[in-house]
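Retro notes, structure queue

What went well: the backlog is down to a handful. What didn't: a couple of records were mislabeled last round, so from now on we paste the full input next to the output in the thread. Example, using S-layer protein from Aliterella atlantica CENA595:
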Amino acid sequence: MTNSPPPDPQSSDNTPLGFDDFIGIFVAFSAIGAIIWWSLARNPDAFNFNRILSGDRATTTVPLLIPSPEATGREEEVPRVVPVPPTDSPEVPTPVQPRTPARGQVPVIVPVPITPASPTVPSTPAASPTPKVGTPINFVDVPQDFWARPYITALSARRVVNGYAGDFFRPNQPITRAEFAALVQAAFDNKPVPGTTEYKDIPTNFWGIPAINSATRSGFMEGYPNNIFRPTQQIPRVQVLVALASGLGLKPPASPEQVLQSYQDAAQIPDYAREKVAAATAAGIVANYPERNLLNPNRNASRAEVTAMLYQALVQAGQAEPIESQYVGNAPQ
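Corresponding output:
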């Protein structure tokens, strides 16, 4: 008799299951059921039993879980839908409405480039154009103490007025109507209007046609009856004041006659010009030298007087700074 160990017992197919076996089976089925429930909760459309039972083989979607780059190293996975083409007749797929990602699901966010809006810049009111100012001309016949020298100097710097050969200005020389039209055009930067003239007494080759057309169309000047302009006529002072008041659109004061009574020779003002002269006086455009209370309305205007009154018109229009003078400005007292 030997001391060898007894042989291992052979298992039998008819051996009944023990309590531990039932516990293992229950745990296994519970795990399978939990996995199925979790899958249905994540994608209820993946198991459409009605369509399976009805034999519908249209396009279905199978969830394919691919880890997103953002979820690398984490448990969350990004569901992506891979279409399965139909095997029979094509069918228009029903559009899938966007769904809110389930809890624990990482949504794929596609960045949309946003163009930054242009910053709002507050609008600035348009300012009056700044006149081009250069070096004034030192006229040899305009002394330092000449009453109109500041006005002549200012407008020569803007190239509104020019002199003659040898730097002469000839301040006391009368000015013609055509020359006055050219000064108005230059002072207010009005564009010349080329073409033929409407006036019968102006030759077709006359040098002042563009300036005269500009002055008449801008409202500064008018002709005489029967289409007469008289371009070479020396312009009276009253016509200068009427032209500037008209071109600036000045309104007559409430009591024009009361304003005109400041002039000792107010009776010499023509009837057609009284309201315009009163408006020019109230606006501080009038220049009277050497007597401030004498208007001399019918005397021909000199180059110095026209320059001073033209500068005052620019002041009234907000295009020039005032210049103090005892002969130019406000209505006489």
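Agreed that this is the format going forward. Reviewer comment attached to the example: Strands lie at 60-66, 78-84.
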